[in-house]
Amino acid sequence: MLVLFNLLAPAGWTVGLLRVEDVAIGCVVSLVVGALFWPRGASGIVGDDLADAYRGGGAYLTEAVDWALGLRGQVPEAAGATAAAGLRLDDAVRAYLAEQGSKRLAKEDLWLLVMASMRLRLTAYSLASLRDRVGSSYPDGSGQRVGSSYPDGPGHGDGVRAALRGLAGELDDFYERIATQVGRPAHGSPLPAEVPVLAGISAAAQPGGDDGLMLLDHPHALWVREHLHHLAQHAVAVPEPAHHVAELRRTPWWR
């Protein structure tokens, strides 16, 4: 009011009216540009970065399992891309929390999804470090030390390692479907089906059985089983918040 009075008193009401019109036009242009280029704010970026983190983490997990079990001759290559996706997700979440306006996604769902991606990445990192910590050999049934490094390919592993490799593939597929849900929706695509709950790790080996004895002969396989079991236990809580994110991303921005 003071600014308008200072404009109107010496120059008349015409100058004040023009100034008000200029400010109003600027506000309208800003609203239109913001609605066109940033309709959902940082929430859309969070969803895209979550999808990248899950996809990268799943690829890192499968490579780390193969590396830990001796089925892969090269160090996992997805570690760098997964770490970069985690950093982008961290920046996006910070921007989303600092953004003005109401948050349509519950913070509990957001934290669960972010922590699930971090758990996936750290599990893969731990698996990739197993050969460095335990060593590159293990005792066989005769008590002799034999090398645990095998050429690339699943045909060089025994049944236990093949089962663990299959479980890692199931987890990879699980997180790929989660990434499809929270990621950018395709135009006209229906809502993805609910992700099935994983059956767990019991198919790999049971303590006391023949497979359990084989696990004891393979320290890497024993630790891989424990890591995958831990990851599968927490994976069952991910589909529900991912479904909420999918619904929000497929809701028109003006609603």
Q: Roughly what percent helix?
A: 55-70%
Percent in strands: under 5%
Q: Tell me the distance between the termini.
A: 35 Å
Our count of helices gives: 10
Radius of gyration: 27 Å
Secondary-structure element pattern, one letter each: HHHHHHEEHHHH
What is the number of strand segments? Answer: 2
Low-confidence stretches: 133-156, 207-213
Shape: elongated
User: Strand order of the main beta sheet, please?
Assistant: 1-2
Q: Strand count, sense and closure of the main sheet?
A: 2 strands, antiparallel
Assign the structural class, choosing from mainly alpha, mainly beta, alpha/beta, alpha+beta, or little secondary structure.
mainly alpha
Mean pLDDT over the full residue set: 78
Describe the structure.
This protein is mainly alpha-helical and 255 residues long. Helix content is 65%, strand content 2%. A two-stranded antiparallel ribbon has the order 1-2. β1 and β2 (145-147) form a beta hairpin. α1 packs across α2 and α3 packs antiparallel against α4 (79-98). The chain is elongated, with a radius of gyration of 27 Å. Mean pLDDT is 78; it is low at 133-156 and 207-213.
Topology:
Layout: H1 2-11, H2 13-37, H3 43-68, H4 79-98, H5 107-128, H6 130-134, E1 137-139, E2 145-147, H7 159-182, H8 210-216, H9 219-235, H10 239-249
